[in-house]
């Protein structure tokens, strides 16, 4: 499969506090769409281009065996969550590779969820350059 056939989407939900609430999508060409909802500097839809080096790192991470097998729910309702802290944000990641779509729901309060979930979310944000739309709202 051609690495440029990969599209990703990440959305971060609310928490108890001022967690940024937004979604970001990167299409196979590296175009980025950011939609800010709350606790971000840029409310609404904004467009940009993915950072080429960070996008290459994301695509390499998506090829990693531990990341490739991530799928489904890592939420309090699933045994893979383990014990969990309340009032933490949910992160939903969608990966489309060559027509195959995977959706991964990660409740960030789950203590038994694989570390690769957090690495994947950070890599998506890094490739998209999400911080450029979030930063000014963070204190």
Quick description:
By secondary structure, the chain is of the alpha+beta class. Helix content is 24%, strand content 33%.
Task: Lay out the secondary structure.
Elements: E1 6-12, E2 21-26, E3 31-38, E4 44-49, H1 52-63, H2 65-68, E5 72-74, E6 90-97, E7 100-107, H3 115-128, H4 131-134
Parallel strand pairs: 5-7
Antiparallel strand pairs: 1-2, 1-6, 2-3, 3-4, 6-7
Helix pairs in contact: 1-3
Largest sheet: 7 strands, mixed
Rg measurement, Å: 15 Å
CATH class membership: Alpha Beta
Order of helices and strands: EEEEHHEEEHH
Instruction: State the distance separating the first and last CA atoms.
Output: 42 Å
Mean pLDDT: 93
Q: Helical percent range?
A: 10-25%
Count of DSSP strands: 7
Q: What share of the residues does DSSP label as strand, in percent? A: 25-35%
Shape: globular
Going by helix content, strand content and strand pairing, the class is alpha+beta
How many DSSP helices? Answer: 4
Spatial ordering of strands, largest sheet:
4-3-2-1-6-7-5
- Provide the CATH architecture: 2-Layer Sandwich
CATH fold-level label: Mago nashi protein
* Poorly predicted segments: none
